[in-house]
Amino acid sequence: MTNSDLTGIQGADAIALSPRVASRFYSRWHDADPRRDGQIASLAGLSLTRSVFARLLQKEIADGMPLPRAMRRLRNLLIVTLIERDLNNHGDLVQVVDTMTAFAEFAIETHVAALTAELQEIHGVPIGDDSGRPQCLIVLGMGKLGGGELNVSSDIDLIFVYPEDGETRISGLHQRSLSNHEFFVRLGRRLIGDLSEITQDGFTFRVDMALRPNGNAGPLVASFGMVEEYLIVQGREWERYAWVKARALCGDPSDVDTLDQIIRPFVYRRYLDFGSIDAIRGMHRQIRAEVTRLEALHPDRSNNVKLGRGGIREIEFLAQVFQLIRGGREPALRERSTRIVLRTLADKQLLEPVVVEQLLQAYTFLRNLEHRLQYLDDAQTHTLPANDADRLLVAQMMGYADTAGLLAALEAQRQLVSSQFDAIFSDKNGTQESGDTISPDIHAAIASGEPLEAIAEHLTTLGFGEPQQAAQRLLSTWQSARVQALPEVSRNRLVTLVNAALPLLVDCGATQLITLHRLLDFLETVARRAAYLALLTEYPPALMRVIRMMSASDWAAKYLTNHPILLDELLDDRTLRAPPDWPAFTHDLQQQLAAHAGDTERQLDTLREMHHAQTLRLLAQDLEGELSVERLADHLSTLADILVDQTVQAVWKTLPQRHREVPQFAVIAYGKLGGKELGYSSDLDVIFLYDDDDPEAPAQYAKLAQRFITWMTSHTPAGILFDIDIALRPDGASGLLVSTVTAFDKYQRQSAWVWEHQALTRARFCAGDSAIGDRFETLRNDVLRQPREACALQRDVLAMRQKMTRAHPGKAHQFELKQDSGGMIDIEFIVQYLILLHASAWPQLTADIGNIALLKLAGELGLIDTALANAAAAAYRNYRKLQHQARLQGDEQSLVVPERISAEIAAVRQLWASVFASVAAT
């Protein structure tokens, strides 16, 4: 919390009022007993903590007060102490809300404990039918109590729940058994009475139970089973908003955890829920309409700082809509405090930090003003007083010389809040829902199912190049069983989205028809999720980016269709275009995996969702031409390294019998990952090494490797992470899944085939124990730098190349960039051969610097002709670029017309002939 959060008492002519002048409640309490000055003085300098509450309460009880009356008297003392500290600048908003929240928790816990003991003495202990365990009442604090931000004169919103049905177990003849439900109903009623009954000492807290399942018409208490059924079957959107704040104030910790598992799926959806925007917008409309109606009836009660325009509720809505949209994927957003959530939004760049600072200052100002309104008479009010004298008192409590100064400051804060609120919640689609803003003819034609010719005519007018084909696809989509099965509101929104997309598709030029096909495939797939349609409706720029990506790449279109949860990534251009921050990504991934420890399914999805999100950002930058093929491959390889490392760590923690906390285990990357040339959908070639003498090590690390592969390759609702190829391990398919470093060393030096040493040229330590990584790198260099006989090496390398050629016969009139003679494999074999032949004399050849750099190095060392080396390096770069472009369009084989790259093919074939001349001649 920064200093700016704690401000809010402002004004050039700051006025200091004594609490007795400012607060009639304070004055009445003070004047009722001459000892009251001493009571306040006794708290001077003390933090108002639970231990202080307990000491003061026991003093009242020792003086003969029953618990409810003692609690009321304690409450009054705390309120006047907070008033005095706040108005004398010895406290601040944080102290006020923290103290009130802590006291409410203390009062509820104390009363529940006392009442439970009394009822158990009469009726026995509630026992669960299923578990056979004693049952406790769980009191959920909602609203500001749940959020830890309670007002000085607020009511408290509570919900009463208990784990299981059953009956009380009696232990004496004087006891009469009750059902658990009846027991907790009695307990709840008495708790409400003890807290809220008004006596000569006032009350402890007003209690509101309206947020319980079925509201005031529902039972006072509910079992976990009742709560779960209600939330699944009947829970409404506004209740999700309310249950965001739900916090257990008492109860058995294990039962509280169970209840949290019931509530969380209702509140926090696993996908990004942009439908929440419209739901909260609707709630806000109703609240504003009610405030407007009341202010029209009572003009003297205007300026509601809580519910009015730019008020406290709008700040809370701003925070909570982000929670409802993203909380299922962002555990940090499940905080209940408005202030903490706003800070998190800034940290995660979901709101600009300067905006968050302004909102926090406005929140502090409005909450301070709200408290001063309540200080007057200890009344639960949120509107400025009707009479001028009280308005002036409030202005002076806020530090202003007159009412006009306060009203001017209030209007400035409200304007700031309402502008931010409107920026997020403005009804962008108020007119667009009917399609009127773009092309009413197209909208009406599609929605009403007009004949093909009519729709084609509208498309022609719009500027579509192939109107007949486009009209046919539009109609077939609209008439599909999948679309017709949608609720009417979703069908209307789908047509509205298509209507909005058509002018953007026209701008796609030659690809407009194929882009339309891709877009409609995507929309048909996601239409069942209203949240995705809501996102594209709420954020037109996201629709524009979807179309742009689909126009540029078939692979991108399929990727978005398979992972529509990634639509969120298209909202913020800054995030989409920002260079990867790999340390921050790693930290975020670690935090999310830790937050879901014990929930393997959620951890699997977390890995996939974060991988997909980062891949989409790279894809967007790639399609915009901001990344070279080499730079993209570097980023994708780094991303894979992080995911491999974090998966190993997470999997190890799931092994119940692990013999050490940190595994002495490493993953070694081969192939494209080893050479840092990874593409979007590349699989990972890896092997597993360990260095651990513990007797349990072989079995434990084999299990770790097996689970690692399962975590990587399993299909979940979020897709898969990577395909894994472990064929390069010692002895291939017949070899052990994991090897000791010693065994791997022996195999490489004594038993490995030449092709395995070729593969070793593109191998590197990827993740895990860095000491094992160092030993691997030493071994790799030693093996690659061994002296080799040229003719034997040439024969072995050429034999392997011929074997690959037979397995991949060429196609007439087309050149396959990777496999055909003069292609990428030839370049890679040349580089591998040069390393194996010359690294004993030129150890720098074993550096992991990529094929292009190694070709140029070989030329500089005089091992091959420099001009040929540069030409082959340029060919390899161009091949990779063409291969990348082909795969973006869905061509996995990367077929090219040979005339297009005849110079590159000739250069590679010439270098091949030069390098392998002696064998070719024999």
UniProtKB/TrEMBL annotation:
Start and end residues of each stretch annotated as Adenylyl transferase: 439-922
CDD domains for the chain: NT_GlnE_GlnD_like
Single GO MF annotation: nucleotidyltransferase activity
Positions of region (Adenylyl removase): 1-429
Catalytic activity: [glutamine synthetase]-L-tyrosine + ATP = [glutamine synthetase]-O(4)-(5'-adenylyl)-L-tyrosine + diphosphate; [glutamine synthetase]-O(4)-(5'-adenylyl)-L-tyrosine + phosphate = [glutamine synthetase]-L-tyrosine + ADP
Gene designation per UniProt: glnE
Organism superkingdom: Bacteria
Protein's UniProt keywords contain Nucleotidyltransferase: yes
The organism of origin for this protein: Actimicrobium antarcticum
Function: Involved in the regulation of glutamine synthetase GlnA, a key enzyme in the process to assimilate ammonia. When cellular nitrogen levels are high, the C-terminal adenylyl transferase (AT) inactivates GlnA by covalent transfer of an adenylyl group from ATP to specific tyrosine residue of GlnA, thus reducing its activity. Conversely, when nitrogen levels are low, the N-terminal adenylyl removase (AR) activates GlnA by removing the adenylyl group by phosphorolysis, increasing its activity.
Pfam family, one: GlnE
Name the record gives this protein: Bifunctional glutamine synthetase adenylyltransferase/adenylyl-removing enzyme
EC number of the protein: 2.7.7.89, 2.7.7.42
Keywords for this protein: ATP-binding, Ligase, Magnesium, Multifunctional enzyme, Nucleotide-binding, Nucleotidyltransferase, Transferase
Chain ranges of the Glutamate-ammonia ligase adenylyltransferase repeated domain: 63-254, 545-777
Family to which the UniProt record says this protein belongs: Belongs to the GlnE family.
